[in-house]
Amino acid sequence: MKSIIACFAFVLLSLSSSVAQKLLPVQIKGNWGYIDRSGKIVVEPGYPAAGAFSEGLALVIKDGKIGYMGENGKMSIPAKFEEATPFYEGMAAFKEDSKWGFINKKGETVIAPQFAYASRFKEGLCRVKQTPTVFDKWGYIDKTGSFVIAPTFQRAADFSEGLALVGNEEEKYGYIDTKGNLMIPYRFAYGMIINDNGMQNFPEGEFGEGLAAVTFGGKWGYIDRTGHLTIDTIYDDAGKFSEGLAPASISGRYGYIDTKGNIAIPMIYDKTLIFSEGLGAAKTGGKADGKFGFVNHQGEMVIPSQFEGSMWSPLPYAFKDGILFTYFEGQDWGYIDKTGNVLWKNKP
Questions:
Q1: How many Cβ atoms are within 10 Å of 201's Cβ, its own excluded?
Q2: Mean pLDDT calculated for residue range 66-75
Q3: I need a surface site. Which of 100, 148, 318, 347 has the fewest CB within 10 A?
Q4: What is the DSSP letter of 6?
Q5: Which domains are delineated in the chain?
Q6: DSSP helix/strand/coil, 115
């Protein structure tokens, strides 16, 4: 049960990257339920764990198993899975006998459990690995479970804007297209995060607005979709472009640059994160003990610094439909709107 509930940390935090939420998961006296956007309880807390909605369905634990709840507050897919993921592009991964397969939104198995690791579908393809050994390679399947791109990559990331970051055995990285053609040669170096379930995630390298942050020579810059270096590698850190801006760092200080590489918001912060719905998270007060607030496109701090990061990621991340999941003082968490008003604060 503990391992099942632990996976809901990601599912809850994924609110920051999911579609507009009609219902929001909350915890009251150890049990989970859902509120609407006004803060009214719609689904009474009675579940050991509950996740954010994605494509109209949310993961919940019932009787020790994982199932999916609909936005009407009723179970749409019975709780029968030992592990499962949110829905993306109409598909969700589930685990059975240590292997991953996929179901559709009716709960029907459309790809039988057969993979050691499976990511999510993006742009019609999902990266998978057939065995858990370090010697096995990553490839990409379509929604029938067939390999469209053979498992030949030592490392692999999800597709973005028609390209996916992949790595070879020499720990160099390039980009492939959805046919598996190497469109940008292996020449970049990346760090990566390996989650508890073995999934490999790349903190940078994803394309946004036609540009991707890349690193070689110890510095970061940006390439376009042809692999041409359009913004020189002069940054200590760099993130994904959104709304014409990207978080970047020089000499340990963070701000935002535009798509030409000009500094759009001064590098005066301890950390900056991606823009969403007109706001970007910016940290002040020190890298270790500081707090996040939000700046607008003019660089004005419109929501004062008061929000924490977390053990999983430097939240806050991104607003979706005017709401953001965040941590407050300590590990208290809840939801705020774009004015900084607290919609809900958890009541453990």
A1: 13
A2: 95
A3: 347
A4: H
A5: 1-87 (2.40.10), 116-203 (2.40.10)
A6: strand
